[in-house]
Write a structure and sequence with these properties.
The protein is mostly beta strands. The chain has helices at about 1-5, 30-40; strands at about 45-50, 60-65, 75-80, 95-100, 105, 115-125, 125, 135, 145, 150, 155-160, 160. The chain contains two helices and twelve strands. A hairpin with a 4-residue loop joins β10 (about 150) and β11. The longest helix has 11 residues, at about 30-40.
């Protein structure tokens, strides 16, 4: 019987066309709800730390910051500029760095110079407000000893030096 059935030609055309209504379903509300669930809020402003001891050399500074919240952060934007007492201090060049960590070492700075730093956090939703500004200071340059002015005797020595820094230095340490 199977053999006979398979030999027959079968006409699979439907005699009537199906009648379907065209319906447009509005899913915009569902879409908005789904997007709001998956949206990551923009981060809060980071908190920049004050300068730590031994965080400076004559030409570099290590700057650290943190977050008070559990925000999702992709990277940070660290900005800085030299501090100036002149009236046109706002016109000084600002530098911006993208950083993945909560710290950064900035190099090629001037010795014994104050720099102002601030940082913002970034993620897919946007940029946080900037942190408060913090002032860091690079270490002074080593002084130059004036060899021609050195005097000594059995119990004493006179050593003279001059600073190469524009800003005054608080104190010096002399080692024998």
């Amino acid at each position: 019987r199977l053999e006979e059935f398979l030999k027959k030609e079968v006409d699979l055309e439907l005699s009537t066309l199906p009648d379907f209504e065209e319906r447009v379903i509005d899913v915009s509300e569902v879409e908005q709800l789904m997007n709001s669930i998956n949206a990551v809020p923009a981060p809060c402003a980071p908190v920049i730390n004050p300068q730590a001891p031994n965080a400076a050399t004559g030409t570099s500074l290590r700057v650290c910051w943190g977050l008070f919240s559990d925000d999702t952060v992709e990277c940070y934007q660290l900005c800085y500029k030299p501090v100036s007492n002149e009236r046109h201090s706002d016109e000084q060049a600002e530098h911006t760095l993208k950083v993945k960590e909560t710290y950064c070492t900035i190099t090629d700075l001037l010795p014994n110079t104050q720099y102002e730093f601030w940082v913002s956090a970034l993620n897919a939703s946007g940029t946080s407000p900037p942190s408060e500004r913090a002032v860091y200071v690079t270490a002074p340059s080593p002084p130059t000893i004036k060899n021609k002015k050195i005097r000594s005797c059995e119990n004493a020595a006179l050593v003279c030096w001059e600073s190469r820094d524009i800003n005054p230095v608080d104190s010096y340490t002399v080692e024998l």
